[in-house]
Specification:
heterotrimer; A mainly alpha (343); B alpha/beta (261); C mainly alpha (290); A: 343 residues; mainly alpha; two-stranded antiparallel sheet; two-stranded antiparallel ribbon; 15 helices; globular; B: 261 residues; alpha/beta; 2 domains; 4-stranded antiparallel sheet; 10 helices
Chain lengths: 343, 261, 290
């Protein structure tokens, strides 16, 4: 029974465009969906490999800019050598966004995992900030703060068989499809040999190495998949909003993704979805109550602290425990797993 | 026995310095194929440091370690494990949050035949590989006697069984040589006896064993040969009876307050 | 040549304040193993205190610095007691998440309290600059440099010569042994966080009148503090002092000769380069990877 429940949910969600006529609600569902994809991708790193990567928004932004620039075309001079790209079909631009983001993930993974802990966190933040500053300052390529405008929407096929993703109902279906595929990819990875290796290196890196697991290899694989998926989310965002500026790289968006993951439950498949739904709809509810964005962020900050204190594993594990009829309180023992040993 | 067998592990003039502190000073000894060798010494003698050097967790300041003729210098721990030289850990010997069965499956990592695409597409090769791993894991748990515990969380097992779990993890890597770091410390006599049987069973299956241990009766019972470390230096080497009667060894242990000797 | 000398002078003067910022952060990491993401907000807090004390309240410029530092220490101690004291022994990722939450909350609270408008603070120094040969520098900057130097020396004295400093160093080296020797670790942690916060507030109070006071200043300061601390090695006080000057030189020369748009990117680039080639910092003696 529980095997079919997720699919029932997917069918229900897929039917939404057929009966939901309120475009505002559809809009929220689309942005929530995009954020959930990004949060799921972060969860692979944060939850399954245990790396607190705080530069995740960089992959999202790189995907957004890559897809926007390729679909618009651009002309730049690199050291006085002109270099130009003519506008490409949107599907191709989005594909390239995934590849470029994945490649960036590979490079960052290769370099950044030489360090762990606080150093890794700081290097990940720095990476995102450097990318943001390039987006602000390389005006020739990115238009800087003036933003890239008039980004085309995705269309597939031609003539009679043209399928346009310009309108909200069709875009919603696209975003949902990408989210479902992303979920399946992550589910298959974490339930495989690779997932066990990732889990092993998170729980006890030394022990993982001692059984022959190439820890760096799996960290890099996780980063590539995670970055490519975040890049896809960025590409979706670009062709939905159809304008992109350097603010997509703001640290606050990484924080939003982190909050989604830890609230829902890091290292669980459903966690980022639960967290994503909550933090996709909460800002809209707050906006409806005419609450200033500053207050919204204060609430986010305080929530983050409260979750770490009182619900360190997130909502999904808490519910699972409730259903399993177990008493809570074994958190302490489970959390105090010694990380590594004599170095 | 086995005195004519080939050398599998050779440690040549290995030194480890931490800043000004000398943890190991010019350590040299060999382990021959099929032996059970004990590495003993008072607390702080450098035994665990020696293990860390051999298995690549620590770079020696000087000297060389070879396994079956392959120099291990510069190899990462997982590469050394892949050569068949596998260790256990003193304290954190299991993945605590996983079940016993998941632990062994994790240990069988290198036996999997599927690649990332197989995993993503759930190909037949992936399914077959996983099925094989599950079968091997069941065999391994039977071998160490933990088959009843398969679905329990490893972190809540009694201490003695966690050590068995640690050995099962190491065996999952298909070692040709096993390094056991204080496997019976903290065990009661019944658990120790059970563990000794397991060590002998592993030995009979053709695995060479190097053992760090404080429990002298256990060491004397299972080892063919014993190497004694004190303050980072080898002070004696020989059969259990030779070691028991070696005045320098007795002095080293007496100096420590004669703990469990 | 004159231009280069002017850049070097500017960098030296800026470096003093950067060092102050870095020392506070590295002290907190070294002793408490906490990555203090609120550090930049304490810097902004110091600057806003300075503004509030000098402009509307009309307090003496020099007194205001002392009061701003005291308020910074108070805010720091509050953060420590409220958020961190209960997390002792938690892993570093947990405290980092809590500190990021505190950062977001503080930053937006400051934005709410002081709005987005940039404010400037009057200073009592002569408006014409001090001119030495081809070089010119404002009197306010000279003052800032010497006060920063004084505070750095004071911190060194505190750590190396006083009873509190001895307890801090003992905690730094080995928390458990220090506790066994009767050192009240709780108090050391609170004192450390208060001291680090006071230094950050001082840096803000000193630079506030030099530049303008704006809500985003905290983020930039935090980024710079991280760069400085990584340069010197996390937990290394001498390293942070030198790191402060190095960052100032790199920024000043980078802005002067490469592109001023990337001035604030220099710190991040330094972080990335250092971590790739010398992960323990330029001056590390022993490895202290968190």
């Amino acid at each position: 029974m529980s095997r079919f429940l997720p699919w029932l949910l997917v069918v229900l969600l897929a039917s939404v465009p057929f009966w939901m006529t309120d475009y505002y609600v559809l809009h929220i569902m689309i942005t929530t969906c995009i954020f959930i994809i990004a949060a799921m991708s972060l969860n692979l790193l944060l939850g399954y490999t245990g790396q607190l990567s705080l530069g995740h928004v960089a992959f999202f932004g790189i995907g957004a800019y890559t897809s926007a620039l390729l679909s618009l075309g651009f002309q730049v001079n690199v050291f006085n050598v002109p270099f130009g790209v003519t506008p490409k079909p949107v599907w191709f631009a989005m594909l390239m966004a995934v590849i470029v983001a994945g490649f960036t993930g590979w490079a960052i993974g290769k370099l950044a995992f030489r360090v762990r802990g606080a150093y890794f966190v700081i290097v990940s933040i720095s990476f995102a900030e450097v990318v943001r500053m390039v987006a602000v300052n390389w005006v020739e390529l990115t238009q800087g703060p003036m933003a890239l405008n008039n980004i085309p929407a995705l269309t597939l096929g031609t003539g009679e068989f043209e399928l346009s993703f310009l309108r909200k109902p069709s875009f919603y279906s696209l975003a949902l499809a990408v989210a479902v595929i992303s979920y399946i990819i992550i589910a298959r990875i974490v339930n495989s040999r690779a997932g066990r290796a990732m889990n092993a290196l998170r729980e006890n890196e030394s022990l993982a190495m001692s059984v022959g697991i190439d820890v760096t290899r799996y960290l890099v694989i996780a980063t590539i998949v995670s970055a490519a998926m975040a890049g896809m989310a960025g590409a979706l965002y670009t062709h939905y909003i159809r304008i992109v500026d350097p603010d997509v790289f703001l640290f606050i968006y990484t924080v939003t993704m982190v909050i989604m993951v830890i609230t829902g439950g890091k290292g669980t498949l459903a966690g980022p979805i639960v967290g994503g739904v909550i933090f996709g709809f909460v800002p809209e509810a707050l906006r409806a109550m005419a609450i200033k964005p500053e207050i919204q962020w204060i609430i986010y900050g305080v929530l983050m602290i409260l979750i770490v204190y009182f619900l360190p594993r997130g909502i999904v594990p808490a519910i699972e425990r409730f259903w399993a009829g177990q008493k809570p309180g074994d958190d302490e023992a489970a959390r105090s797993v010694p990380g590594a040993l004599q170095k | 026995m086995n005195s004519s067998a080939e050398t599998v592990l050779s440690i040549e003039n290995v030194s480890v310095h931490f800043g000004g502190l000398i943890a190991i000073d010019g350590m040299t000894f060999d382990v021959r194929s099929g032996e059970i060798v004990g590495l003993i010494g008072p607390n702080g003698a450098g035994k665990t440091t020696a293990f860390n050097v051999i298995t690549g967790f620590l770079r020696p300041t000087g000297g060389e370690v070879r396994y079956r003729g392959v120099p291990l210098n510069g190899l990462k721990p997982h590469e050394i494990a892949q050569l068949g030289l596998v260790r256990t850990f003193q304290r954190t010997s299991v993945f605590q949050e996983r079940t016993v069965f998941q632990n062994v499956l994790t240990g069988l990592h290198r036996s999997g035949r599927s690649n990332l695409w197989d995993m993503l597409l759930r190909t037949r090769r992936e399914k077959e590989s996983e099925r094989e791993l599950v079968e091997t894991a069941q065999d391994l748990l039977r071998f160490v006697g933990l088959e009843q515990r398969a679905s329990e969380q490893a972190g809540v097992l009694p201490y003695g069984e966690q050590r068995l779990m640690g050995v099962a993890l190491a065996l999952a890597v298909k070692p040709s040589m096993l390094l056991l770091d204080e496997p019976v410390s903290g065990m009661n006599p019944a658990e120790t006896a059970r563990f000794v049987k397991l060590v002998e069973k592993i030995h009979h299956s053709g695995v060479t064993i190097l053992l760090v241990e404080h429990d002298m009766p256990m060491v004397m019972e299972v080892c063919d040969r014993i190497v004694v470390l004190n303050y980072g230096r080898i002070i004696a080497e020989g059969t259990p009876s030779e070691i028991q009667n070696n005045p320098e060894v007795i002095r080293a242990y007496l100096g420590q307050g004669k703990k469990r000797a | 040549m004159d231009q280069l000398l002017q850049h070097l002078l500017n960098a030296t003067i800026l470096g003093g304040t950067y060092a102050l910022l870095g020392i506070g952060l590295t002290l907190i990491f070294g002793i408490m193993r906490v990555v203090n993401f609120t550090h930049g907000e304490l810097y902004a807090f110091g600057a806003y205190c300075m503004y509030a004390l000098v402009m509307p309240l009309g307090l003496n410029f020099f007194m205001a610095l002392v009061v701003a530092m005291a308020l910074g220490a108070l805010l720091g101690a509050t953060i420590e007691l409220l958020l961190l004291s209960r997390l002792r022994g938690a892993d570093i990722d947990t405290t980092m998440l809590v500190m990021i939450g505190a950062w977001i909350a503080l930053q937006n609270a400051e934005q709410l309290a002081w709005t987005g408008v940039a404010l400037s603070i009057n200073n009592p120094f002569p408006s014409e600059p001090l001119i030495v040969g081809p070089l010119s520098v404002s009197w306010n900057r000279v003052y800032v440099f010497f006060v920063a130097l004084l505070l750095i020396l004071g911190t060194y004295y505190l750590i190396n010569r006083t009873h509190l400093g001895k307890a801090m160093r003992a905690t730094f080296q080995d928390r458990d042994t220090a506790a066994l020797m009767g050192i009240r670790i709780d108090r050391i942690h609170t004192a450390t966080f208060a001291l680090g916060s006071a230094l950050a507030a001082a840096a803000g109070a000193l630079l506030g009148p030099v530049f303008v006071v704006a809500p985003t200043m905290g983020d930039l300061a935090a980024a710079k503090a991280f760069a400085i601390v990584i340069l010197g090695g996390l937990g290394n006080i001498k390293g942070a002092t030198l790191g402060g000057f190095i960052l100032a030189f790199v920024e000043e020369l980078g802005a002067g000769y490469i592109s001023s748009g990337y001035r604030d990117a220099m710190g991040f680039l330094l972080i990335i380069l250092i971590l790739l080639f010398r992960p323990t910092g330029l001056f590390a003696q022993k490895e202290r990877v968190g």
